[in-house]
Known about the structure:
The chain has helices at 2-9, 13-21, 25-32, 38-50, 67-84, 109-126, 141-152, 169-178, 201-217, 229-241, 259-267, 283-292, 294-307; strands spanning 54-59, 93-97, 131-133, 159-163, 182-186, 221-225, 250-254, 272-278. By secondary structure, it is an alpha/beta fold. It has 2 domains: 1-33 and 281-307, no CATH class; 34-278, TIM Barrel (Alpha-Beta Barrel). The longest helix has 18 residues, at 67-84. Keywords: FAD, Flavoprotein, Nucleotide-binding, Oxidoreductase, Proline metabolism.
Amino acid sequence: MLGPVILAASRSDRMRRLVSAAPVTKQVVDRFIAGEDVDDVVPVIRELTGQGLELTMDVVGEDITNPAQAAAARDAYLELIDRLKPLELGTRAEMSVKLSMFGQALDGGHELALANVRPVVEAAAEIGTTVTLDAEDHTTLDSMFAIHEELRKDFPQTGCVIQAYLFRTEADARRLAANGSRVRLVKGAYKEPGSVAYLDKREVDRAYVRILGALMEGEGYPMIGSHDPRLIAIGQELAHRAGRKLDEYEFQMLYGIRTEEHLRLAAEGHRMRVYTAYGTDWYGYFMRRLAEKPANLRFFARSMLTKG
């Protein structure tokens, strides 16, 4: 299994230097990363929304080592919101945030992350949109869910992400579905031990279907984060069985992956949201995209061989 090896490489400074220095890397990264700054990404936002798609914007970056960097991450999102305001897209362009970028792993990180993310959520609400809290490794989740609960007191539209490969997630999903949360369900893209997560792909898929069924039957708003055609079809069937209308759930896929499927779902009337990342600190995000799907790794390796 190459996935765990790639995930380990995502935290290696040596691999970061090697991958970043490869001549072909930029052209491959451009498949998954929409640009380096907000000026790059605004035309992408216009293009995708013009095609009937919706977006969730992610400013990439994970190696936060001091409060000043966490504040800079907050400010990057506030700049994005300022640029979104004149576009008047409302919830067609929301934001995804990783609390690690807001200082969650630092001393006093829970309070620091909450203090940094709150003004982003407030500013998003002022322009008619919202924020989803991304899930990271399992050690961070209790803090993430507590921050999510706190933010929902004033901003009930704040979403969160759950990961099907974790044993705890079925219970988390039922709790979130009961309280009406917006929930994105993904398989999971972090290296986790067998003590907390399913390691077999078939078990992860089965858990995904069980959890998605619970979300569809609940009171919240399910967001189906998958590129798997079988899971997409199952999601449509579960939504139908639950009596959900097309605007009562949505699909989410990554920028640069299965683009034709994005357009097909949107053309059928589904809400189709593209997870669109941008920024200069792309390495960790990029390596997890390679780990998630063998086709992504093959694409990178083929490009290295033909263009390097």
